[in-house]
Every structure is written in C-alpha cells, then in structure tokens.
C-alpha cells in the first residue's frame, strides 16, 4: 500500500502481448429496454409530459375536425344523388353541380325513349328560392325540387305515398324537417294541420315533411310538383330541365345502355350512371370548389403544428439531458440504442396524446351534429387513419430530434 | 496480464501549423489489479490519455492495448464493445436524474443480454449495499448528498465487473473528507474484487489509495512530485 513508484518513465516489462480477449460485438437490444428508459424519463416530469401531450391532443383534434367536416361535406353533397331512384341521368355538358345546374331541352328525354332498354323517363327541376320564415318574416334560400309526384323519383326519408299524393294538389309543397331551424318551426306548425307560407313571394301550402337535412349547398329543401314548381320559380321554362332521370327495363345492362344513349343523344348532354353522378358531385366539391383543398390544408397545418411541438419537446429533452446521453454512450450504449429511446418517447407521445384527442373529437362531433346540423361520424378507419398521421408526425419529429444526439460526445464528459 | 499497455502513443488536436500535440510518444503499462493515479497540471494531456484508454477517442499514432483490445485503427463498433467492459467514474456523478439509485446502477447491466431484470436489480442492490447505500436504493439522485451520489456512481462503475475502472477527478465535486472516504471505498472494493483502477486527479489528499503514482507534464510521463 501507498507504494510510490519514482519512475521517470514507466517502461513496459512484458515482451509478449497477452492473448487477445474475444470482444463481444455490441448486440442490438430490443425495443423493450429503450422504451422503458424513455417512459421513465417522460414520467419523471409530469408537467412537461402534459405540455407535450397537449400539443399532440391539439393536433389530433384539429385533424379530426378537418377530416370530419370534409367528409360531412362530401357525404351531404351527394345525399340527393344517392337518393335518386333511377338508373341513368342526363345533365347539361356545362353543369358543374346540382345546385347550380345548367338546364337542357326536355326533348332529350323524349329522344332517350327511343332506346329499347329505356322503360320510362322523368325530369327533375331544381331552383334556389327564398323562403320567408313564417315566424320571423326573414328570407332564407332553400333548394326547391320540382318533380312529377307519380314518378317517385326522390327517395328521401319520410316520402311516403300520402306525401306524394298530397302535393298533386296545386300550390302545395313538402318541407324538409331536417333543415336549419332558421326556416321556422315547420314541424310544430304542421302539428296543427297544413299551413301557408311564402316561397319566392308566392303563397304556398305546406302539406307535409320529408327528411334530407342541410347540405353544404343548401340549408333546407322543399319538394313541389312540376306545375307548382313552374309557378313558384317564375321565369323557368318548362321545356328546359336540370336533370333527366332514366329508368331502364328490369335486367337491362346499365353500362351498355349508357353507351348507347350517349351515342344516340346530341352532345349537349352527358349520361351518368348513379355512382358516376355522385362522384361527379364529389369532384366538384373536392376540386372545382376550393373546399376540399381548404380542409386538406387544415389537416396539413394540424400536422405541422403537432410536429413542431413534439420536435421541440424531444429536442429540449435531449438537450437538457445531453450529459446523461453522453454518459450512456461512454458506458457503451450505441447511438442506435439512444435513437430508439427517442423514438420510443415519440411513440409514447403519439399514443398518449391520441387517446384524449380521440375522446375530445367524439365530443366535438356530437356538438357539431347537434348544433350546426352537419352530421360528423367517427369511423374506425378514420380513427386509424388519423392515428397513423399522428404517429407519422411523432416519428418525423423524433427523427429530426435524433440528430441532436450526435452532439452527445462521451469524450466531453472528461474535462 | 496487463490491463493497459501503451507504446509510443502520440495525440494531437487540429491540423497544420496550429496543431497542438498533447501526447508525445508515451509508454505506460498498468498490470491487472493495480490502482494507478495520474497527476499533473491542467493541459498536461492527462484527460486526453484517459479518453484514449477509455476508447472514447480514436487513437492517432502508436499502440494502445486495453483489456486485450488494440485500439489503434479500431472502429467505433470495437470501441463501443470495449467501453462496455470498462467502468467510468466522472468528475460529476452523471447519474440519470429520472432513475432511482438502483435503476441507475442497473443501467450498467442492461447492455448484457444474458441478464434478466430480476438479476440486474439484485446485483445493483447488492452493489449499493457494498457502497453503504442499502437504505437509499429507491432514492432519486436529487435526494442524495454529493458523496452519496458519487458512491452510486462507483457502484455503477463496478457492478458489471469491468476489467478496468477509469475515474476523472472523482473528488472534484466533494469536500476533502467525503472525497477521501469515497476514494478509500473505491480502493477497498477494487482490491476485494481484484479490479484495475486508473484515476486522473489533482487531489493530493487521495494519493494514499494508489499502488503507484504517475505524473504527467507537457504530454510526457515524468517523475511524480515528492511526498
């Protein structure tokens, strides 16, 4: 003990080198231990974890709302199209969407009858007209459908034989009971029997209801017979129709009939099958109207904001614990192991932030459906899709933050 | 068998005319089981020597053989593997603040895939008993005194039975009494287990724990100051 060696230089005494010990190469540990380390680190500072999670919750909420509104828009935009009971449809070449359709000559429908597969044809008229709220006297625009009541073309909820029969009388309409409340307490007024109202400054009798609901193109709807429609929508030429509905004989080949019709008819009209009609309307909202783009942008902004917040948290966690990370490197932990720690933290943030985000979104979906009458539906594929986005967001943030790990130089731990 | 064998080791920082040579053609042998203390003024190159032995820096010139592994021209993979067989004690304890004393010590064992969690915690706890912290196994570093933290660090450096323990100014953050107690503890544990220890220090009060003292000046080993 306490033996001091007064050497000017310490000379090696061994002539032969010791046998090379086998050095076990660093084995790749699994994800379990890095994950546990990340979790312990996050858990140790609950306030910071809460701050990080609130960022993820916010991003989740924002994305759910944007996607919810976007899909509600698309669903509601094709509600009418999906309720039409016909096989093929004619629309004018320049029509962009149902609510702003360009009309075409009614004669095209008569021409279509020449095709042997066609059983019958019926026209559909649409017009945006002001309805005067019977209680407040305020005008609000609704979408009026004019259709032959005997054709049973519209398949909206609540349209039974009695309702169709009721509007065969002149100057009567059916009113959308799922429309916005600004149109008046239609249902309670009808409880005392039919009542009179003012549509496009014409006196009409409301004799029944149906259920369609507000869409992005109309806040409420009404149905009238063709003759009533022409009287209310003054200035409309009965010989010009907006949509032509074609019912084929049972067993007819829809695709073949469509091709035959398109060849038969002048090219001022386009022939659509029902799925094509719905897709056409969808495309309008997604592409022609900037709405699809706006909601897409909303999703992107939610992701960017979430990325920035998660990155900030991960980056500052690494920066504040740079000494600890360098210590672990000195102890033989690999960069890959520490990268897995960071990615585990990102995963924890994604999962723990997504769950409350999902719950809050469900609540907001309920509120949106009840208060603004735009039905938002949470579906499992949508929830999975948003989780995938949030997860990707956290992974990207983690990958960017990992670059900071290179600053953790174990040699710096000795100074 | 020697734990460390250094021959003709040179090291410089930077390149060209501004390059600073910190180690000049150094030779040093540390036999297994010996406690060697390296002293010298700041800037003499002793920390550089420590980081080279600890496989934390790439060897530039000469031979540096640690625990049988030649570090000249060794790749990062080899160096990481070697570091796992070394116990490090830092100037500041460098414990992970979010882990308890036991979990901190067990971190040195988590790189060994042959151990399960139960075994790791048992060995960590036994090591904490050995450094006199039986009642602090579940304490976080923030709840411990400076001396207790450094003792946890010693437990962490010893628990995976390393062939070599490297310490850099281990008493710098401690008062003289605690510093000496801590180093005496390290000496006792190292001797009981036959571990090799290499300590870089300024602190003359801990010279008595060394088997041998080596002094360094301007990148060369010289005769140590007299005692």
SSE layout:
The complex is a heterodimer of chains A (415) and B (227).
Chain A: H1 32-44, H2 46-77, H3 79-82, E1 88-92, E2 104-105, H4 107-112, E3 118-132, E4 139-147, H5 161-166, E5 172-176, H6 186-191, E6 195-199, E7 202-210, E8 221-224, H7 226-232, E9 240-241, E10 243-248, H8 254-264, E11 269-273, H9 274-288, H10 291-320, H11 322-330, H12 335-371, H13 380-402
Parallel strand pairs in A: 4-8, 5-7
Antiparallel strand pairs in A: 1-10, 1-11, 2-9, 3-4, 3-6, 3-10, 5-8, 6-7
Chain B: E1 2-13, E2 20-31, E3 35-39, H1 46-53, E4 61-66, E5 69-70, H2 76-83, E6 86-89, H3 101-106, H4 117-130, H5 146-158, E7 164-168, H6 176-193, E8 196-200, E9 212-217, E10 220-222
Parallel strand pairs in B: 3-8, 3-9, 6-7, 7-8
Antiparallel strand pairs in B: 1-2, 1-4, 4-5, 9-10
Helix pairs in contact in B: 4-5, 5-6
Structure description:
- The complex is a heterodimer of chains A (415) and B (227).
- By secondary structure, chain A is an alpha+beta fold.
- Chain A has 2 domains: 32-74 and 292-413, no CATH class; 94-266, no CATH class.
- Chain A is built from 13 helices and 11 strands.
- In chain A, strand 3 (118-132) and strand 4 form a beta hairpin.
- Chain A is elongated.
- Mean pLDDT of chain A is 85; it is low at 1-28.
- Chain B has a domain at 1-85 and 202-227: Rossmann fold.
- Chain B is globular and about 55 Å long.
- The two termini of chain B are 30 Å apart.
- Chains A and B meet through helix 1 and helix 11 of A and strand 1, strand 2, helix 1, strand 5 and helix 2 of B.
